[in-house]
Amino acid sequence: MKAVIQRVSEARVVVEGKTVGAIEKGTLVLLGVEKGDTAKDADWLAEKIINLRVFEDEAGKMNLSLLDINGEILAVSQFTLAGNCSKGRRPSFDDAAPPQEANTLYGYFVSKVWELGIPVQTGIFQADMKVSLTNDGPVTFILESPKKR
């Protein structure tokens, strides 16, 4: 699994002109599911993201997690994170998990984050989504579940 996480002061996802998910202070998570990913990968990413200390403390140091600031997550499925652009000019999506499998793991990730105490908003799987955000910092990280490293 791959995730791009961005520290945000606000983020929203719009489908067909309607806001389907929105958060204030927290993290936007763009989540890509690849062939071979399992619930174990989703567990690892959920734990890592909610405990990652990317929010500033009183001294201005990145020392606080989502749990510490009572932040939220906006989780958006991002099929293109599984794209391989190393050959040619068109991305290959051969490594992407099949849609049903990807949707199941995306849903599992969202439920795991809720279980760990972080409120989650979502986009709509396979929809044409418009994502907007105010990246606070900017602060952006790329995470991959351990088997990918």
Explain what you see.
There is one protein chain. This protein is an alpha/beta fold and 149 residues long. The protein has one domain: D-tyrosyl-trna(Tyr) Deacylase, Chain: A, CATH 3.50.80.10. It is 23% helix and 38% strand. It has three helices and eight strands, in the order βββαββαβαββ. The strands form two sheets. Strands 1, 2, 3, 6, 7 and 8 form a six-stranded mixed β-sheet that branches. Strands 4-5 form a two-stranded antiparallel sheet. β4 and β5 form a beta hairpin. α1 packs across α3. The radius of gyration is 15 Å and the shape is globular. The mean pLDDT is 96.
Distance between the termini: 11 Å
Number of domains: 1
Biggest β-sheet strands, sense, barrel: 6 strands, mixed
CATH architecture: 3-Layer(bba) Sandwich
Mean pLDDT: 96
| Estimated structural class | alpha/beta
Number of helices: 3
Q: How would you concisely characterize the structure shown here?
A:
The protein is α/β, with parallel strands linked by helices and 149 residues long. It contains three helices and eight strands; from the N terminus they run E-E-E-H-E-E-H-E-H-E-E.
Properties at a glance:
149 residues, 23% helix, 3 helices, D-tyrosyl-trna(Tyr) Deacylase, Chain: A, six-stranded mixed β-sheet, two-stranded antiparallel ribbon, 8 strands, alpha/beta
